[in-house]
Amino acid sequence: MDLVIGATGILGRQICANLRRQGRDVRALVRKSSNPAQVDNLRALGVETTLGDLKDRGSLEAALRGVTHVVCTASATLSRADGDSIDTVDRAGNLNAVAAAKAAGVDQFVFVSFPSSESMFPLRAAKDEVEHALRGSGLAYTILQPVYFLEIWFSPGLGFDVATRTARTYAGGTGKLSWVSFLDVAEVAAQSLSLAHARNRTFSFGGPEPISQRQVIELFEKIGGQPFTVQDVPREMLLQQFETSADPMEKTVAAMMLILGHGDRWQFDNADLLSVFDVKLTSCREFAERTLG
Q1: Which stretches does DSSP call E strand in 57-205?
Q2: Which domain CATH number covers 137?
Q3: Going by C-beta distance under 8 Å and a sequence separation of 6 or more, which residues neighbour residue 23?
Q4: pLDDT tier at 39 (50, 70, 90 boundaries)?
Q5: CB 3.0 to 4.6 Å from 257: which of 83, 170, 215, 269, for a disulfide?
Q6: Would the pTM of this model clear 0.85, i.e. be above it?
Q7: Range of the domain at 65
Q8: Computed from CA positions of residues 141, 142, 145, 148, in that sequence, does the dihedral angle turn out positive or negative?
Q9: Residues 6 or more apart in contact with residue 108 via CB below 8 angstroms
């Protein structure tokens, strides 16, 4: 039995679907506050659901009964209920999951993080602590460090709207990084459970080419045949938010947006990843064509 933590999120749902396509038995940790439609969709896939919360160690112990593999994608960055924060979910909650999995004798723990950064910020610090705990836990682990998801950063929630042909860039949006599709990350996560060479390894990866935010917008303009109105959030404004904000989430968002100004060296040739996993990485052009189509 596989347990997916963060199963109602965009990545977790796709991982559940991929595991079910492999014929694996999957259990999803869901909360009372989870979207009922998303929970129903998981059940329609043949996924068993169990109520629990990363902040409740007892619920994790119950969810882990009979489980051999764990995939953890949970984060407070996109879906926040009462009591959720970077500290309670991304740090303490994920540490709870690692400790409970160790106590339950789980065979493998797959943790979705993101690459190391030149700058330190609250979410990066939380991920670092969990990665360190997992590596020292004695559990067989796979740590995945994908770069930013195309489907998140090029969506209306972050100012990119195909319908209105408007886009928002951050810190100039000129830094090149290897944007990745969440569909590819889900495929890698699902394959991790059945590949011996994926165990006790960390994979930092992205899409097939480094490209800037502005270049992605230009792709949409060329393929769609219509110009976008682009507004930039200046680096100075983001830097001030990062340096002055006392809120860990605000500081994290500012730091992640600042990376788009210079790329933070998040460019990968993916040779290490592709030597282990059978996955065709989605290009930004393919993403644009799919979105516009």
Answers
A1: 69-72, 108-112, 140-146, 166-170, 176-177, 201-205
A2: 3.40.50.720
A3: none
A4: very high
A5: 170
A6: yes
A7: 2-148+181-205+265-279
A8: negative
A9: 68, 69, 70, 139, 140, 141, 142, 192, 193, 199
